[in-house]
Amino acid sequence: MSDAKIGAPTILSLDSPTTRWTASTGGASPPAGCGFTRVQPSPVSAVVLASGRVEGVRTREACCERCWAEALCVSSLHDAGAALCLLQTSPESGAATVLAAEVDEAWTRCEPKRADGPPLSLQIDASVPGDLLTDLQRAGVIGDPLREKNWLNSSLWNHHTWTYTASISTAQLGSRLGRPGSRLLLVFDGIKMGATVELDGARLGVAADQFLRYSFDVSDLAVGAPRTHTLAVSFDPAIHVDGRFAACTGGWDWAPYSHAYLDGAHTMSKGIWKSVYLAAVPPSSAAILHAVPQIFYRGDYPTARLEEGGHAGFREGGHAGFRVAVVVHFEAATPLRGTLRLATEWGPPCALPLSLPAGASNATIEAAARASEVRLWWPNGLGGQPLYRGSPVTVNRTVGFRYVALVTGNDTDPSFVARASGREGSGSHGAPLTVIPTDELEGRWSAAAHAEMVSSAAAARFNMLRVWGGGAFLPDAFYDACDARGLLVYHDMQYAQSGHSPKATPAREAELRRAATATQEAELRHAVRRLASHPSIAVWDGCNECQVVMGTPTGVYATFVMTVVASEDASRAVWPSCPAAGWSSGVRLLDALPTGRPLVTPKSRSRIETHGPYQHGSGFAAVNGASRLALFPPNLPIKLPDAAPTGPAHPNVFASEFGAVAMSSFESMAPTLAPKHWGLHAGQRSDNCSGGFERRCEGENVMAERNYPCDNMIEVYFGRAPAGYLDATGEAVFRRQLYQCLLAQARRRPDHRVPARRTRRAAPRQRARPLQALNVKSNIEARRARNELGILVWQLNEIWPTGGWGSLEYGTPVAGQVLGGRWKPLHYLYARSVFADVVAVCGEGGACYVKNDGPRPVAGRIAVRALEFASGVVTPLAAVAVALPAGAGASARFEIDLSAFDGSTHLLIAECIDDSGAVLSTNEMLFAPPSQLQLPTAVVSAGVAEAPNADGSIDVVVSASATALYVVLTSLAQGRFSDNAFALPPGTATVRFLPTGALDRSLLVSSLRAEHLQANLMPAPAARPYERPRAHLAA
């Protein structure tokens, strides 16, 4: 889990277990209540935190508790009449503002008190890279932070200064350090939350940005005989960090909310979350801080597709080649003369004479990549992903050759291409799953989990992922996997709401404001330089949901954030934010590559990128969602929008966030809960939850903290719950509740707004409106009926077992979890039909369409059939010939006769089959919600083969005594199934279990469960009758 290191002749790793680290605290005593004093009536100038005016705080005790939870708070003022709490801080904190208040006898000053007795003293072994909470759990000091409500007991890690300490010896660096002029750099690739770094008791500096690499010159250690030194990193909760840490730390509407804050932003984990090392640089050399390849296509703007003739832009071996410019950033102790050499896998080496000044500098070395020397890198499903290594001196970077354009105009029209050449801005057409961090606890992150998560996205036919701006710049393993699997990356800078925007600190001192801006600029430059070699990264954008408007506070994303990014990488498209309306100047109109001119957003523009709608959970008091049950129509069958032209020649929209919530499987949820709490309502009294989007819950209910409830999703599709059903606990009922919740997520009502840019699939979110969303599957099917050429679902993965938005479960392989995330039923539907290049969809009244988003023409037929539940008989309904040109967006409408089709007794199946007989996709479509289906009683079982197949998979034979719908297989074994959540007529079907790593057959056999719809319907009494009865289809 290390980043690419600084290039130096000698590197000494200080990571565990090579180096022994400890974490210790000898801090203040734990909190012991509050001292209250009346404030004399008078006007007061209170020095409060920037986010320190908290409304709705009814008691002075609650106000004092908020002060305890806020790391920068020293005391608080409470106005009982107005239910107002002011969190006071020191003017020197760097986070203070002055607020005038008229104080009367209703005001109380609250001063937290410490307990009598000795301060806490504790030392444990620590892991680097890692985090404090994981270390505390490993040492047995705390339980699993994600179990029950353990993470809320935060005083141990939130109210104390923790110091990580290690002993290091320079003897291991060899004789090179003995020569005059040698340099020794102490490098921290990542430190999370504010920390002071000391060596042998001498302060080296303060780390205040999670996303920035810190290096310190410790060349004095090279003088004299080698000896052992003490390195200490002290995490002080009172260090102001200006919001430069993952915004989702300590809570989002899919992550556990902590009750600990730093300047109003939630906090949770801290630690040395990336690698630490010493880099030794002899006097005759310089350290390479970064090697940044930028790859530029040398030909004209290509408009032909793949094998098409005319323009040679993308014919293998026939394109115009590429220019490779590698910007190398150096750090030299003294002025140097020498030669920079670049060795590549595709052509002869290059050399550049250098004359470097002392200190930081950079030089650019260029190479050509001719068409005959390289193969092209393609997104998933469009071709291969050949990668090439280049090596400037001691640093290696892997690159791929491709030309990515963020297209906002009709580039199928040669006249538009001619007019747009040399012009700036964005057009009115649209451009192209969102990824969140894999864990709140960085000590649990692993390269294998990130790689497996990306593999799961590729296997479900995704070709783009968005790195969300409220998380983190992810580890190299994620981007390496995207490079290898052809997943394009739409990359937010790490800015989001809740105290994490790129504004300078609100302190009065100009020096502090300048320091904050300089730190953020360094962060941006480091991030782009670190990641620019990855061919998967297609677009940089400024932030999550910040709506960049020039002349307002959000204009900083154009004038500062993206201006810095564009200055570092001219080879990629830049975009204001996600979502955005594009630029009026500063980028090339044809492909959105920066021109070097000021980036300016338009004053008004038609909507070409959208977020939403979102189907939130409701019906139970929780930290997210409404306590009141908010039902919505199931909208089955779906109603297709009116036919309209599709394809890149027509206006379109990029839908970069929408989704629906669901819990995870019993296997995932159960280990984080006590058995007595196995139920959607935990078998406990409901909490009292108040607030807006993010609510504060008072009470003991553990499920209230697991983000969204699922009551409304279940009742919409499975009918009204009998009294006490959702309150019930136990393994059997919890499994049923979770099956219902997961299946409900796999269905959602469409939003009939315009959509997309020219890429599809991935994962993001926003605020939903009632009755606007019903299911992700039918939502996407309706979007693909329109001209939405970019569809990114919110979200891909879960950060913990909860009521969240992901199609992959929590992917850290702790108890009950599968590496990279167990596939939810929705993810299997993505793979089977939803994101197939060629898919057929039918809706209300027999209205249907077929869509080709693939790169090649399609000729074949669509076979539409009906599966009768009672008998298991499959009856052909229609065979439609299809001939579609190459996509994206090639489509045709057709109709089938459903006058004799009864959605309560039959399932509609549409298969797309090409002329060779290959099945391109199979779409199973319900025409009524599960509560209204007339299903036979079925017994379903599953058995595992005795031996694996030659490819390492193993067969699983599933048997059904009668037609069974949505058969779901689940196991504790590491891996996934080749298909799942499918309809099974009477008889057997064989699927394969695809293991991650070595197959554990015994665990697969012992933990395999087969569920199906009939066994998980709502217990009696049943719900309302089906609304549109139809005649039964004759066999």
What does this structure look like?
With 1035 residues, the protein is an alpha+beta fold. Among the domains are: 10-14 and 129-138 and 149-159 and 166-280, Jelly Rolls, CATH 2.60.120; 31-114, Hepatocyte Growth Factor (3-Layer(bba) Sandwich); 288-310 and 319-420, Immunoglobulin-like (Sandwich), CATH 2.60.40; 838-929, Sandwich (Immunoglobulin-like), CATH 2.60.40; 940-1016, Immunoglobulins (Immunoglobulin-like), CATH 2.60.40. It contains 14 helices and 49 strands. The strands form 13 sheets. A six-stranded antiparallel β-sheet has the order 9-2-10-15-12-13, with helices on one face. Strand 26 (434-435), helix 5 and strand 27 (464-467) form a beta-alpha-beta unit. It is globular. The model is unreliable at 305-314, 504-509, 748-774 and 1022-1035 (pLDDT under 50). Residues 123-273 form the Beta-mannosidase-like galactose-binding domain. Its EC number is 3.2.1.25. Residues 945-1013 form the Beta-mannosidase Ig-fold domain.
Summary keywords:
disordered C terminus; 6-stranded antiparallel sheet; about 1050 residues; Hepatocyte Growth Factor; Jelly Rolls; alpha+beta; Immunoglobulin-like
Q: Average pLDDT, to the nearest integer? A: 87
Distance between the termini: 59 Å
What would CATH call the homologous superfamily of the domain at 10-14 and 129-138 and 149-159 and 166-280? Galactose-binding domain-like
How many extended strands? 49
Radius of gyration: 30 Å
What is the element layout, followed by pairings?
Layout: E1 10-13, E2 21-25, E3 31-38, E4 42-55, H1 60-69, E5 75-79, E6 84-88, E7 96-103, E8 107-114, E9 122-126, H2 132-138, H3 155-158, E10 162-169, E11 183-188, E12 195-199, E13 202-207, E14 214-217, E15 228-235, E16 261-262, E17 265-266, E18 276-281, E19 287-297, E20 322-332, E21 336-344, E22 350-356, E23 359-369, E24 388-392, E25 397-399, H4 414-420, E26 434-435, H5 447-459, E27 464-467, H6 476-485, E28 488-492, H7 510-531, E29 537-541, H8 556-568, E30 573-575, E31 609-615, E32 653-660, H9 666-669, E33 688-691, E34 695-698, H10 711-718, H11 731-745, H12 776-785, E35 788-791, H13 825-834, E36 838-842, E37 847-852, E38 858-868, E39 874-884, E40 890-895, E41 906-914, E42 919-925, E43 940-944, E44 954-960, E45 964-970, E46 975-977, E47 982-984, E48 987-995, H14 1001-1007, E49 1009-1011
Parallel strand pairs: 26-27, 27-28, 28-29, 29-30, 31-32, 32-35
Antiparallel strand pairs: 1-18, 2-9, 2-10, 3-8, 4-6, 4-7, 5-6, 5-8, 10-15, 11-14, 11-18, 12-13, 12-15, 16-17, 19-20, 20-23, 21-22, 21-24, 24-25, 33-34, 36-37, 37-40, 38-39, 38-41, 41-42, 43-44, 44-48, 45-47, 45-49, 46-48
